Amino acid sequence: TINSVLRNTDARVSLYAITPVGAVAFTDYVLSSKEHIFKGLHSVTVRSIDVNSFRNDIRIRGSRESLANPMNYARYFITDIFPELKGRFVFLDDDVIVRGDIAELSSISLEGNVAAFGSDCTPIAEQYGLFQNKYKGFLNFDNKQVQEQNMDPEECSFNAGVFVADATLWRQQNIPKQLHHWMKLNTKENVYGAEGAGGGSQPPMLIVFYKVKYAAIPPLWHVRGLGSATGRNIPRELAESAFLLHWTGNKKPWHAKAADENK
User: Fold this and answer.
1) Span between the terminal Cα atoms of the chain, in Å
2) Number of Cβ within a 10 Å radius of residue 35
3) Collapsing DSSP states into helix, strand and coil, what is residue 102?
4) Which of 22, 38, 94, 190 has the greatest number of C-beta atoms within 10 Å?
5) pLDDT tens digits, 89-144
6) Phi/psi at 40 (5° precision)
7) Are 115 and 163 in contact (CB under 8 A)?
């Protein structure tokens, strides 16, 4: 992911990496030992997060136990982990390949909102039969707390693996606290996790940003579904025109078979 960012931009890129406790030294070593690859980075900041502080607040009801990995929730606490972070930042999952200039994604309009996400319902998704997930696929709308949010079950969801955000607004609106609230509530009540789209870190993001509101990432800046059965519907011309490809399926870009399927 980092290499793909650097290969496609002349911008000064500052990397903020989050690791589990005890892995900071190893991450620093990897970055320094691959200096020929990462020399384009303007700065690198590596911090750890103590996952034990919220491990007991994770409840997975579906079969995807991988969603219980506490590192999936680190994105909630970015501004706590990096208090010096100011202005815009771009969050990228580690299973994305960037093909466009990251400076272009970073500069999209947030329209006064805290963040921008890529909608699951776009003309591209409809044209190629890709995922068009709705809120009802993630949340238990029989739950009273969910009902009180007055959310439309048919509202299109978004994927939180790629987003652009304003760090100052993220703090001002207490996004970490809001997200953590829904995590903890889900351990006591069935708020999410048993629905078809699964649980993990995604549902709290959907709940919080339904109320907070968000801007849209241009569709070609988040083409997802690769590594899954649906991803096989992505034609070569779409993959080649995309600025960012996201392997949201079980097969990842570092798996040889996944790469072969999407050549």
Assistant:
1) 17
2) 9
3) helix
4) 38
5) 999 999 999 999 999 999 999 999 999 999 988 888 888 777 788 999 999 999 99
6) -80, -5
7) yes
